[in-house]
Structures are given as C-alpha cells and as structure tokens.
What does this fold into?
Amino acid sequence: MSRVTVLVLAPDPPSDAGPLERTLFAARRELADRQHGRFLAANADEVVLAGGPADDTPFGARLRAFVLDRRPAGIVVLGGGSVPLATSADLRTFVQAAASPTRGALANNRYSADIVAVSCASEVLRDVPDLPADNALPRWLDENALIPVADLRGRRRLAVDVDSPLDLVLLEGAARERRDASRGDWPVLDAGSAAVVRERIGAIRGVTRDPSAELLVAGRVSAAEVRWLERGTAARSRVLIEERGLRAASHLALAPGRVIDRRREPSSVLGGLLDRDGPERFGDLVATLADAALIDTRVLLAHRLGADERRWPAPEDRFASDLLLAESIRDPWLAALTRSARDAPIPVVFGGHTLVGPGLALALAER
It folds into this structure.
C-alpha cells in the first residue's frame, strides 16, 4: 500500500473580511485542526493543513502546485469545513482508497465533491487544470484523466460542508448527538447572531409536524432529500429543484468533445418572480405557496447576477442574509429580500446548498 498524504485547505480570512466571515474561517480552521488528528488515527502518513492568506488562486492550481512540490503517492484532499460528521470508519475508507497501488479515486459525491481520495496522485494530478473549486475534480478525473471514480453518495452525513455561519447552527443538534472524546466541542455561533434564525428553524420544524401544512424547499435539492422529506416530515412538500451543479459544472472538467460553447446562464423560476415583483414582495409571494420555506439563495443570486460569485454581494452580506440580519447587509437588493423574508407571514430560512441538502435533516429532524 502507498503512503497517503491528506491535504486540508484551510486558508486565513481575507484582510477585509467582516465579523461573520471571520467567524466562518475560524470555525473551518477549528474543524480542520480536528480532522488533522482524526486522519492520522485513520492511518494517513501525514496531514498538511494548507493555510496562508485567501486569494483568487483556483483550487486546481493549488492542488497542482502541491502535487508537483510534494509528489504524494496517494492523496486525500478536502476543505477545512468538509465532512465534519464523517465517522472514523469513513476517514479510513478514504485513506485506504488513496493508498491503493492502482489508479482510482473516491469522492463523497462524484458530481459535486467536498472530499476526494486519489491513488497514484503524482501521476494523475500533475496536469489538473485550474478548476475553480474542488466540486468538479471527480468529473475531470473521470472524463479527462480517465480514472475510475467511485463515490459514497449513500452516506448522507458526508454531504455536509460548512460554507456559511448558518451551517454551524444546523450542525448544533448533530453535534450534541455525535459528540465523542475524539471530537471535543464543536464551533458554535454566538447566541446574538443566531437568535432570529434559530427561532425560525424551530417554527419550521413545528410546521413540518402538521399533516395539513405545506413546506416549500427551493434550490439545489437532490432526489435523496425529497425522499427524506417524504419519510421524515408529516407536512406536504412543495419542492422546486433548480441549478444543481451550479458550482460543479466547470467546462474545464468536461472532456473536450463535451464542452459546449454556449452554456445556458443560471435561471430560476422563483428568481423570475422576483424580477417581476421585486425583492420587497418575497415574503408575501412565498406565503401564497406554503406555510414555511427553506430557500437556497445562491440560486437566486446566480439567476440575478450570473454564476461567477465575484459578481455577487460580498460574503459578509450573504452570511448576514442567511442569519436574517437584514440591517447588516450593504447590498440593497439582498437587504430588501432578507427583510421581506424575515418579516414574512410564514417562517422562512435562507441558506446555501447545505440548507436544502443534508441540512434538511439536521434542521427538521425531531430532537
């Protein structure tokens, strides 16, 4: 079996980061530090925490430079906030995949990865292109490097990735249930910042216990989450699935013959209604559709501004929106949208992929 290096990407916050962004970076670093010891216990030979200042360097360029410099035999690469709910057995599975003497890869999800193990890494990854994020790496391995890629989509706990301070709130229940000596205390968002959204989550949980009520879930929802809603909640579900693969669909990951010159821009049905009625009407609009709502706002931002996140409101604004802190948001459109959601006649929670993905069970399951 080959030696295995684990690369955990945990950069420092930008110099101009706001308090919520700094909180997120600190939490991701804390989670990365915890993964360091857990991967060593899972038989990894070394664990490298890649810190340093955050910048615009693409994920692919960082990974390529690391591989050319260190020449690892096998590698497991993940972000600092990735797979916080992974068990020790899960981590050993990734280490064993990276240690294989034959070429192969293992991801938590081959279509949008947060953690990837690659064997024979020095050969396989030396030509990886400047992929914008880790999500697209399995597709590049499959279609360009011609490496067999397996995944663990059936292990829903491996889909959790801490991308927003809201995700720390979603993890609170799981943290209480899963805490053990190897993990210690989990990062927790301060009570003042999270008070409103915690109350809304509790209200939505109450709605889902009512068989006569209806829950709206909109965004990058998977079929697995729809099945969980059917089994795990009493309420009816209205699910609007839009823009799955928003971050993973890099043209750099596709085989040359599959690259499409005119890729459709992100588009959202709910976003189109906001174009027509304005963000101030959002609360009233969703109240005509359901008795509670969980909304992936990244789809709405992509509809309005395109897939390039550099054109979106600043991360600090997006994180404040996730916590329904409308008065802290500088972007006028997002502030109006968040204010309308906070003051809506039904409970509404905003977030990203985790909220409408594995976070559904974390938010809505009975405690």
